[in-house]
Every structure is written in C-alpha cells, then in structure tokens.
Amino acid sequence: MPELTIDGRKVSVPDGTTVIEAAEQLGIFIPRYCYHPGLSTAGNCRMCMVDVENSPKPQIACNLPATEGMVVETESEQARKDRAAVLEFLLANHPLDCPVCDQAGECDLQNYYMNFGLYDPRFSEQKVKKEKAVEVGPHVMLDQERCILCSRCVRFTDEITKTGEFGIFNRGDRAELGLYPGETLDNPYSANVVDLCPVGALTERSFRFKARVWYLSSTKSVCGGCSRGCNTDLHHVTDRPHLNDAERLVRVKPRFHAQVNEWWMCDEGRYGHGWIDRDRLGEVRRRTDEASRRQVESDWDAAENALAPALAAANGRLGVVVSATQTTEELFSVREVLGERFGARIVVAPQAPGGKGDDFLIQADKAPNRAGARLLGLSDAPADGVESLVDAAIAGELDSLWVFGEDLVELVGAEKTRSLALSDCLFVYAGTNDNPTVSLARWVLPTAVPVEADGTFVNCDGRVQRVGRAFAPLAQARECQRVLCELASRAGVADAPSWSTTAEVFAAIAKSTDAFAGMSFESLGEQGALAASREPLAEAGTP
Amino acid sequence: MIEALLIKLVVASVVFGGVLNLAGLHTWVERKQSALIQDRIGANRAPIFGFKLLGLFHGIADAIKMFTKEDVIPRGVDRTLHTLAPFFSVFFALVAFAAIPFGPQLHLGERVIDLQVARIDAALLYIFAMLSLGVYGVILAGFASRNNYAIMGGMRATAQMISYEIALGIALIGVLMVYGTMDLSAAVEAQGRTIAGGWIPLWGVVAQPVGFVVFLVAALAETKRLPFDLPEGESEIIGYFVEYSGMKFGMFFLTDFLETILVACLATTLFFGGWQIPFLQADGFHFPWGTEIPVANWLYVLLGVTSFTVKVLAFCFVFMQIRWTLPRFRYDQLMDLGWKGLFPIAVVNVLVTAGVMILLGGQG
Amino acid sequence: MDSTTKTTEQAAVDGAGLETREMMLNIGPAHPAMHGIVRLVTKLEGETIKDVDVEIGYLHRGFEKMSENVDYNGVIPYTDRLNYVSPIINNVGYCMSVEKLIGISVPERCQYVRVILSEISRVSDHLTCVGATAMELGAFTVFLYLIKAREFLWELIESVVGARLTVTYCRVGGVKSDLPDGFSERCHAAFAETRQAISESRGLVERNRIFTDRMEGTGVLSEEDAIAYGITGPFLRASGATYDVRKDCPYAVYDRIDFDIPVGSTGDNMDRFLVRVEEMEQSMRIVEQALVDLPPGPIMADPETGRAIPAAEMVDLAKVGDIPAIAGGCAVAGPTLEGTGRADKASISTDEKRVTLPPKEDAYGNIEGLMRQFKLVMMGHGVRPPQGEVYFPVEGANGELGFYVVSDGSGSAYRVRVRPPCFAIMSALPKLLKGDMIADIIPTFGAVNMIGGELDR
Amino acid sequence: MAVKVVQRPQLTFWEKLYIPQVLCGLRITFRHFFRNLFLHIAHRFGRRTGERAGVTYQYPEELRPLFSRLRTRHRLMVRENGAPRCVGCMLCETVCPAKCITIVPDEHPDPDVEKFPVRFDINLGVCVYCGYCVEVCPEDAIRMDTGILDIAATSRDAMKLDIHELMNPQLRKPVASCELDFPHQCEVHGGEVRGSWTQPAAVAHEPRMKPSKLRTSDLDSRSSA
To answer: Which candidate in C34, C200, C210 is best for mutational testing of the B interface (most B CBs within 10 A)?
Structure first.
C-alpha cells in the first residue's frame, strides 16, 4: 500500500495503481485521451503529464505506478505548460470542424482546451488533409482528420471484441486511423468505439446531424433490449421537436456498472429504441359493435365505465396474458388487481424463439424482466399457457381476456386471434405499440412505455434495477398501474390499491414478495440491488 | 323682397361656408405650422389623384374619418344631452359669425349690400351672448358623459369661460366708449379715421392698447386653447369630450377652430380696423402727404374683404404660434390670472379711458 | 395625515350642511400622463388630491426569473428593456456585477467606452424626462426640440452599438465592439446640437412664469424624507443630498474624471428640472473628458494588423487547412461585427478566455478559437462564475441601479435581483402628491421619470 | 466632491407679467418657423440643399442614412455556387435569447461542407435583434446588414422567414420562384416552396454516405479556385 502525495494531499493506494487512478481517488482529474480504465494502457497521447518530484522530466500519469513517498503536482506551472503544449500539438492538424461535428459539446478537445489549454494559437502551417465522412460500418462514421490517434478504438476492437478491425496506418503526421483492408466495423458492439472516442473522429450514423448534444437531457435507465439489463443513459429532447424527426428519445449511451455491463453495451440494445416514438398507441379505442371490427376513438372515462362492471362480474372467468417486457411494478399491479381482486388466470408470454446470445453481454432472452415475473410468482410454466387461455376464451369459458403488450398473432397465430375477436369474450388489449392484435381487440388501452414511467427490471442475474422516467407519456397513454387502480376502485373493490407513485408500488412489492424484502425504490439507486432468491434464475454468466 | 332674401342667403352661405372651410383649413395650418416650428415636415400624405398639395387634403381625410367612425355612446350616459352637446357647441360658435362685418358696403347698381350676415345694432352683445351660450355645449358634454374626467373638464371649462368673459367684456367696454357704438360695422367705420395729422389710423389697438392685451388674453382663454386648454388638458384630465367619438368629437374639435377664428375676427374688427386699410377711404387712397388715388367701389370692397381676411389669418397664425410656444396654466393659477390680473386691469383701463375721454372732450 | 383630516373637518364646517363627497379618480393605467403602465387611484376634493394609491405591476416582464433560465450573456438583451431610455447603463451595471462575481476586470479602454456610452445614455434619458415633463405641461415644442437632440445621441449610439434602443452592447468581460472611426467628431457635433436644443428649450420655459408657477413648490420632498424612502439619483439630489454612485462609490473610471454633482435646495419639481438639465451638461463634460483621456486602442497604436481577408474566404481556407494563407490576416466580417476583430478585442474585452468570445480571426481561422467560441455558446458550457453572490451598483439615469447576482457555479445565475431606482421614488409618490392639485400630478410624475420596464421588471 | 447647487430662476417684475417671456418664447418659435419655411421654399428651387429644414425623414420614400453597424433584417450568406454558407451548427439557435431560430440540418454531398440546413427559419415576430446570432456564427453565414427595416407583415406566418427569404432578401412571401441552388431542388407551388423540408432532400434519396475521394493533391486546385 504505497502512500503518495498528489497536489499536497496524501493518499494510499493498492500496489500497481497508477497515478491517474490515485488522483481520481482524491477527486483530482488529470486530463487524458488514450487512457481508459477498461482498456490496456497505451500512453501515447501524453495529455496526462504531471510533475513528479525528483524526476527530471514530466511523467505521464496513466502509466506511472504509484510508489511510496511519491510527490506529484498536477497543477504546477510546468505541468500546465506541458499539457497546453501537448494539446497544441494535438490540435495542430485538427480541422475546423466544430460546426459540423456531432461531438461538439462532449468533445474532450474542447473541454480540455477551455480547462487546461487556453494558450494563444500559434499554428500557421498547412493542415494535413485526410479522409472525411468514411462509413466504417453500419453504425459508425469515421473522420480521419479529427482523429488524434489515441488508439482507444483500436484497443477496443483488439481487446474487448477481439475482432481487430481498426488499425493505425502510416507514420508521422500522415498517420491515420483506418480499417484493415476488407474489414468493416460490424461486430455487435461496434458503436462502443464512438463512446470511447474522445473527439469527433468516430461518430454515430444514427445520431449524425440529428441534434446537438447540448440540447439533450439525460436520464439514467436500464436497457430493455434483453435480459442482461445494461445500465444506460437515455438522451432525449422534447423542447425542439424539429430535431431528430420529432422523436423524443435521441440516443442511448451505456452507463458504467461494474457488475453488469462495465462501460459497454451492444448495438442491438443501443439502436433498439425506435419503437418508443414510432407506431405508438396514442388514444383509447373501442370496437364500434360486436359484429363489426371497426375501431373508433374513445376515452378513458368510457373505457373504465365499460370495463369496470365487466371486471366486477368476472368472478374467475377472466384471463390475462402479461409480458416479460413489462416492469416489475406493472406485473405486480396486474397480479394484485386482476389476479387477487378479480381472480384472473395470469399467464406470462413465453420467451420468443430464435433469440441469440453471446458470451459477453447479449442474452438470448430478449424480454428484460422475465426474472421479475418469476420472482412475482407469475411463472410461464406451461409452454402453451397462452394458447390454452385463448382456447378457453374462444370456447366461452372466459368472460374476458386481457392482453398486456404481447402480440397474440405471433403467439397463437392469426386464425385463433381472429376467432377470439369474433367470440363473445371481451378482448381487451393494453399496450404501447401497434401490432396485428391491436386491431382485433374490443378495447385498446394505451399504456406508458418504461421511459415514460418509472419502474424496475430484474435482470438475468437477479439484479433489480431502476428504469428512469425521461418524459411524459404520449397523448392519452397512462401508466399501467394507474389504469388498474382506477378500474379496481371503479369496480367497487373494497380494498382497491391506491398507489400514486412507483415508489409506493415498489414498497408494496417489497412487503408482499420475499425476494424484494428490505428493498425500497430509493435504495435501489443507480446501482440496483440483487434480489434474494433461492430459485435458480435464468442461465446467465457474468461478463 | 325675394331678391333681398336671396342676397342675404348668398352672403350667409359665403360667410358660413368660408368660416367652416377656414376651420377645416386650420387643421392643416395647425399641423404644418407646428411642424415648421418643431423642425418637422408635418402631414404631407393623403393624395388625391397623386396630388398631395403639401398634405392639404388631410382635412378632407379627417372629415371622412370622423364621419365614418363609429359613434360610441357609452352606457349610462344621458343620451339626449350627450347627443345635443356637440351641436350646441358648434351652433353657437357658428351663429356668432353672423354679426361680423367682413367688408365695406358693396354697391351693386343702386342696391347697397352689407357684407355682413346680419347688421345688428347690439352686435357685440349678440356675440357675447353666443359665446356665453357656447359654455352649455361644454358643460352638457361633461355632465352627460357621466365620467369623472369629463365632468372635471366641464366644470373647469365653465369656470374658465365665465371668469374670462367678465374680463373680456370689461376690456371691450373701453372700445365701446371710444367708438360709442355696439354695432360692429359702425365700429369698423369709426376706425377709418386717422389721428396725428392723418399719419396713424385710429384703430382700436392704438386707442386701447391695454384693452387689446386684456382682450387678447381673455379671448384666448375663451377659445380653450393653450396656454388655457385646461378643460382639455390632454395629459391631465383629457377633457370634457373624453366620451365622444366620431363626428361628435369632430364637432368639438371644429368648435375649437371656429372659436379661434371668431376671436381673430373680433380682434380684427375691434382693434385692427376690421376691413379698413390705412389711408383708404370709400373713394380712394388719401395719403397724408397729399397724394390721392381714386378707387372704384368694387375694388374698394375687394380690398376691404382682402384686408379683413389677411388680418384674421394673421391673428389665427399668431394664436397658433402661441399655442405651440407656451405651457399650460394650472387651474388655480388661471383663476388668479383672470380675477386678480385681467379683471382689475380691465376695470382700471375703463376708468382711465373714461378719464382721458373726458379730458379730450368726449371724443377719442 | 393630521392636516388632511383637518381640511375635511374645515370643509364640513364651511359647507354648513351642504353635502360634499370625495371624488375617486383612476388615473391610469391607460392615461396619457402615465407613461409606462401604472395606475394612480386618487381621492379628490375638487381639484385637490386628498389621497393617492399607486398601483404598479402592469408591465411585469419576469426579468428576474428569465435571468435564471439563460446563460450570463443571455441576460443582457433583457437588461436593455429595464430602463429602456438609457439601456447602456443597465448593460454596464449587469456586466460589471457579473465581472465582480467572476473577479475579472476589463481593459481601461473598455472602461472608458462604457463610461462614454453610459453618459450619452444618461443625457438621452434626461432629455426624455425633461422633454416629457414639459410636453405634459403643454409645451410640446420643448419636447420635440429635446427629442430631436436625443435623436442625435441615439445615432451616436447606433454608430457604436448597431441599435438605437435595444442595444445589447456590453458583454460579460467587455463590450461588443470598439468605437468606430470618427466617433469623437460625431460626438462633438451631436453635443453641439444637444446643447443648442437644451438652450432653446430653456429659453422657452425656464423663466416663463407659467412654467415656473407649475414647477415651483409642487411635489416637495425634504432631504430626510427622500433618504428615508431610499430615493437616489437626480430626485434625491434635487432635495439637497449629494449622493451619487459615481462619486461615492466610483466604478469604471469615474474617479479620474472631473465633474460636478448638481444639487437642488428645496426639493420641488423646479429643482428636479434644473438638476436634470445641469446633469446633462455635466454628462457631456464627462464624455468630452473621457474622449480626450481614452487610451488608444491597438488599432491606432499599431496600424499593421495584417492583410484584410473576407470572413467567408477565411472560413473556407481554414476549413481545408490552408492556415498559411490566413495566418496573421484580419477578418473582414459583416458590418454589424465591425470593431470585434483581434485588434479591437484586446482593448475592449478582458483577456480571460473562459469569459469572452474570441476575436473573429480566431473564430474563423483556427481550431482553438473555434472551440472557444463553441464552449462559450453551448448550453451549460459558457461563462461560469464561481459560487457566490455580489451586489454592484451603478448610477443609472434615475438613481442607483444595482444588480444582485447569486451564482451557484453553473452556467446561469441562481438569482438575479435588480434594485431599480424608480421603485423607491414611486413609493414616495403618495407623499409627494397629497395636498397638491390634480394638475400637479403631471410635473411631479414627470420628474419621477417612471420607467415601467425597470419598475415592474 | 464638487457640488454645484443649481440656480433657481428669480423672475424679475417684468418677467412676472408673462408678456416678456411669451415674446421671448415666440421669438424662438418664430425663428424656427421662418427659417424652416425659408429652407423649404429654397429647397423647392434647389437652393441651400445642404441645410435640412426638418430633422425628420419621409420614411418610405426617404431612408435615414443607416450606420453600417445597424442591425437590420437577417440574411444568410450564399456560397459562390448558390448554396447557403450555413452548415447548420446551431450555435445561433442555441444562443438566441428569443428562441426564434429553427434549423434542421442534413448531409451535404461535399465532404468539406458535410452539413447544411434544409430548414432555416427565423421568426421575426419573436426576434429581438440582439445580433447574437451574427456574433456567434463561426462560418460568417448569417448577417444582419440588409438594411431592411420594413419587416411588417399582415400575418404571423408571414413574419416567419424561411431559408429562401433569408438567402435572397428580395424574396418575400409568397415566394414566386426559387433560384437558389441547394444540394436539392425546390419546387414552387402557388407561392409555397416544397421539396426541401416536407420531402427529404434530394441527396437523401441517394445513399446517405458517400466516402470522400478528396485527396491532399486536390487541395491546391481547390484553394486556388
């Protein structure tokens, strides 16, 4: 445990710690480009120069192991001058691209110039031209001029994905980042190089010119793309609808979580958010009459007036299909209201076939909350549970069938769904997006997607993680638990729950379910917490 | 008989038409004159077939605007009085002109025509009466509007007009004494005389300089224009016509100008020799150095009418100039000036005049 | 209060049973004399004012709240609209408070420029106030003569600032642009016109008894009362106090300039009129001295500022990396950006790179300048004063104009509070008006020079 | 501290009689009146045109000489090939205190430009003419030097300038024709310009990315051109 002094403050760190990490422990930020904690140390950007006592030259903090009694100065006049000089070199060939560069606003060149540079520019030579706007893969755009050759992306493809598409070619000021001949950057984690790139050399194609980063608001959330539950930051803009084709969610960035995803996330999850603003169910709809399949717009009041008596009269003749894409709170409220109060048979839709996983982050099960459903006791035990439920409905054994968020056409086939629609059973669809099933339902209730409502997902490792609420639900859409609470009270249920916040729902879960015992919505925080469960969870491995 | 009536009709229409047009022209003069004083250019639009004539048509545009504007009668007003008030104002201002002689007698064949709508023996009294009645329009407007601002304006106007009429009347007593008549034509004719060996015409301003000043001030106050525009006082109480719009407002506006012209006519008639031109008598010029130029009657009349018009316009011009030069009095200061300033001066003036006349043996 | 009740009793005795009632008169909010928007609820006995209730708030713009939602430079256009008759003083006051918060000072030339334009603004403000007062007393010609003079001053401002009223001229850490060529000559010419107009206007009213009667003895406020009400500026000085921020707490370069503080003796409207008239003369004196003392900008010291390159060409060359072609050149940007180039920037803005935009040459021609430009403009990246709070007063045209700025270290102010000089005067208005006649509202209110923009914020 | 007590006017007896000061005032007003009258007449005959008879201007016919720095209606600068100089960096949209600028950028076929605005609107009904947009523009793409002051319109929509009106200040709504050379073509239908922002730009129909073929050797010819 060497103890060293940085900027006059003492810190003792484990053996092998570098000065840059030691400084971080003290809250001292040393500027860096090539250094990344998730990658090997390269030490080629020279930005993290610090003054070390008794050392004739400045040292790079990223590759300098802390030793006992070391005295480091990060703010000395010499260190400042060194950093400014390094920056001046890095910027010498940097094009004047801020106006057209998507990185502007989160660019470390800009940030470090204002924080550590501030020198008067002296460069008056011809800048070296390289290629601009090169498509290197389906998701990533390369601008060779902007690249400062920190090699983070090269190391990522070498060390993390081990696909090795990137390399640095040529020498001196002709050195440029590029793909090896015949390669394309199309590995499933390719967009991580964009996050790694400290400058605007690698940018996302989907975000290209869509918005400026300084317009974006950020919400901490969890990816719903698979049961891994990678931690994410959602970047969204609601006050400038002319940007990003009026879609509110602009982009998703991975958020560091040591146990779940570290710094990374897959492209599938990163770009799988388009459905949030596309083909959404905006308003309550109902079928005009029994025979016709025409749907008309309605409102919540009418829906509740019609559905509450039906629920009250159900008396066990009620079936519910829930989805493992719903948050734990939604599933719990379905269980509590429809299951407990109205005696519904609840079936969780089974895992969609054909999902592929890998040994890094991607899981085969694309539903983010199957573990949550299982912990709540909503097991998908019989594989044909949904089908038998639909059969029962068609046969007249059920008065009404509620489907949450799942596409019945996909699960039981179009034929069966159509005959369900024609049967006497009151077929209610509550969900977020349009699908073939929606047009067949007698009532369509729009519900909020996870980014429009708070909630939790339980990932494949049993980690309960919070999904953030980024913006208000679209149009008439409402949070599922609110809909169910109101229906219950409208139906005259004596002990109808009256949750108004997600935290209250979660508190009810924690009270009633052992696996969640002792947790509260607040205490989950950014890191989440592992559910205490004796049952084996879905087969999964830590990264 | 019919012929005489026709002639009266023609004269009357010439007078009233002329006066009304002059009032309309006043709006243009007011705009242009103030513009020149204030280094501006003034209204110069409202073209008719591309002719702008320095914005002369703005008066017509104004008239059209006034007539076509919505005539708002606020809720709660006394409708009859509210409607009647502007007519009162304009009517009395207009009929007062009947007694003003604007030229010498015209000989048309053997017919002798007075260039005056009505030759009244007590013309001065008549004009005073009409001026006093004008106050009704104002007080009625203020009262009928049921508006605190309007009623204050009306009260101010009434007090002001009554106070200054006294000074005005007494100032004119001196003139009456000098000319010995209340007939304005006779007064004008009396001003044709000369004194100092025929060098100076015996105009009222010569005989009654103090009376003239008092008259001018009091008369300005009668017209309710700056510096005596307290009843309007657009930045204080807006005025008695605050609840008027359209042509009814226009009529108050018109009254203002008519009264200005009336006062200019009176000042001309009583103090500046009316239609008289120095050294010009009915048969021609008689210069004190002996030269005589005979002048035909039609030319004499023409010169007389021109002389009268020029003098009236000059007075209007001066009034306008004063209006754009001075700030406004305060109510109590105005009353002070009227009762403690003008009234005693006018009285003293009468006494002095009487004394002088006695000394000079009854003739001025 | 005692005197009021006494007069009522007296009136009751005099009236001998005749019923008299107070008249309520709402003066404003839509009334020709209530420039800006304000309402005086008056109780009248005849023409005499027995009681006044001043009602403000008709022009609430939410300045202080808006200031919390934009970055520090974004507030400046809002300050233009505080006292919209002398906007540059507001600009200066706000910018100097933020500069104090950051702890930077601006170059000397910039300070002189600020003083010069502040004083020109003060003259134009007083011209408006005096002229409007005269106009409302009926002397319309005086108003137009003074407004004519103001026009010359506004043209002067336009030639520097690029706008006449909504100036948006000062920046945190400097001003937008340097004085243009020939400013000094134009300034002297404009002052000659102004002096001529003022002397003509004085000739029209100052010794005219109608005017002096209206002004003397009306709206009297003693020195003690004025201080007790927190009144500052010409209104206070007319009452005899000598407080002037420029002298008592000098900012910019006022301590180096010789000028007098005109004070009155009786605190009536006549004194206020005379103090304002004299202040205009003093302000012009300040400007004339400042123009002489103005440290030469580099433009004058060093004519070798490099080859002139059209801005567009510079951008295009820099874009393809042809830095040698533009190195050392001076950018010729649009005319509205005159006086913002590298040569001027050094003398009109602080050299603190984290506060002021780079000179045009840097923004167009090199990556460092471009990045600086971006960092200062992007939301949440711009000027970030350290945590703290600061109050900075300047002498506005109506009195002490202070900005109290609280920073939480983020890119926009946590709280901005203005101390508008009008507010204190307006609160003294009932005291000024009680017992006077209704017509006295006009000169008194005129002398208050109420500016709705700063009163209601 | 230099304090100067102002001298209150002490009126003499004659001045208290009003008349002398009235005459004094009349002298001033008459002087202006006759001087201006004389000058107006002289101007009619083409004399003494150096002296102005009034300080006012006959606005629509006669424009006040504007100082070069005066901020007037905006315009977007145009490249030699007719395309906008603007690259859609949105600094102006960001800095605008009135939030009156709306920009939608898109890909430009020239890799040295990369980005250009398919939509650039300024709502002049909201603009406060602070000039911040000009000041922050890193491309010299927007200027406020058109000298256009008469921006009045009869509807709020007409106060919203689109990119056509901004690039060519002569154009006013309804736009009769579009001569502007964008990377896409605009079509005018009854004064309404379509094809630029309702329909995706022409370049968007092609493959969105075109790898640049620009080499350093091309540079010399480019910069000399």
So the answer is: C210
CA A182/CA A465 separation, integer angstroms: 41
Q: Are residues D88 and A132, on separate chains, in Cβ contact within 8 Å?
A: no
Question: Min CA distance, D219 vs chain C (Å)?
Answer: 7
Indicate if the pLDDT at residue C146 is higher than 80.
yes
- Tell me which DSSP letter residue A67 carries: -
CA B197, B200, B204, B209 dihedral sign is negative
The number of residues making up chain B comes to 364
Task: Compute CA distances C291 → A394, C109, C295, whole Å.
Answer: 94, 10, 9
| D114: closest chain A residue by CA | A100
Q: Residue A127 in contact with residue C368, Cβ under 8 Å?
A: no
CB D92 within 8 A of CB D100: no
Confidence of residue C334 (pLDDT cuts 50, 70, 90): confident
Phi/psi for D187 (5° steps) reads -120, 140
pLDDT at res. C305: 57
Q: What is the pLDDT of residues B108-159, one digit of tens each?
A: 877 888 888 888 888 888 988 888 888 888 888 988 888 888 888 888 888 8
DSSP codes joined into one string, C296-349: PPHHHH------EEEHHHHHHHHHTTBHHHHTT-EEE--GGGTT-SHHHHHHHB
Searching chain D, which residue's CA lies closest to the CA of residue C240?
D5
Size of interface A-D (CB pairs under 8 A): 62
CB contact under 8 Å between C371 and A105, yes or no, is no
Q: Where in chain A is the domain with CATH 3.10.20.740?
A: 3-91
Give, to the nearest 10 degrees, the angle between helix C108-136 and helix C441-448.
Answer: 170
Using CA atoms, how far apart are residues A114 and C377, in angstroms rounded to an integer?
13
Mutate to test the interface with B, among C22, C41, C141, C207 (most CBs of B within 10 A): C141
- To the nearest whole angstrom, how far is the Cα of B326 from the nearest Cα of chain C? 6
What string of DSSP letters covers A463-504?
Answer: EEEEEPP-SPPSTT-B-HHHHHHHHHHHTT-TT-----SHHH
Contact B324 C140 (CB under 8 A): yes
Q: If contacts are CB pairs under 8 Å, which of residues 428-467 in chain A contact chain C?
A: none
Residue D196, pLDDT above cutoff 70: no
CATH number of A285-541: 3.40.50.740
Residues of A in contact with C381 (CB under 8 A): 105, 110, 114, 214
Which residues neighbour D220 within 8 Å (Cβ) at sequence distance 6 or greater? none
CA distance C215 to B177: 41
Alpha-carbon distance of A522 to A501, in angstroms, equals 12
The domain made up of A3-91 has a fold known as Ubiquitin-like (UB roll) (3.10.20)
**Does A394 score more than 50 pLDDT?**
yes
Closest Cα in chain C to B33: C141
Q: Which residues of B touch D60 (CB under 8 A)?
A: none
- Token pair 């603009």 is found at D127
User: CA-CA distance, D78 to D142, in Å (whole number)?
Assistant: 9
pLDDT, residue A408, reads: 86
Q: Do C145 and B234 touch (CB under 8 A)?
A: no
Write out chain D residues lying below 8 Å of B321, CB-based.
Answer: 26, 29-30, 33
What does the radius of gyration of chain A's CA atoms come to, in whole angstroms?
28
Q: Where are the domain boundaries for CATH 3.40.50.740 in chain A?
A: 285-541
Number of H helices, E strands in chain B: 12, 7
Asked if the Cβ–Cβ distance from A133 to D102 is below 8 Å, we say: no
| Contact residues on chain B for C139, CB-CB shorter than 8 A | 325-327
The structure's pTM equals 0.88
CA of A155: how far to CAs of A38, A149, A180, C49, C58, in Å?
10, 11, 14, 86, 65
